[in-house]
Specification:
The chain has 71 residues and is mostly helical. It has a domain of 35 residues. The longest helix is centred in the middle third of the chain and has 62 residues. The protein is rod-shaped, with a radius of gyration of 30 Å.
Length: 71
């Protein structure tokens, strides 16, 4: 088996620095996007409630018109 190669301390430092910078960037980006996504989910939930209410009313009207036609 081949023994492990010695890695330069500069390369090690650079790799871990890039990892740390990426983690910090990801956290900041997540904190920036989280409120936007929450607002979009809230708006979508309100629209879904309105859409379901309209569908329920349309269904009731269709049933009422069918009953009046049959009578």
């Amino acid at each position: 088996m081949i023994p492990p190669v010695q890695v330069s301390p500069l390369i090690k430092f650079t790799r871990y620095s890039a990892l740390l910078v990426g983690m910090i960037y990801g956290k900041k980006r997540y904190d920036y996007l989280k409120p936007i996504a929450e607002e979009e989910r809230r708006i979508e939930a309100e629209e879904k409630k309105k859409r379901e209410e309209l569908e329920r009313i349309a269904k009731e009207l269709a049933e009422a018109s069918e009953e009046s036609i049959l009578k």
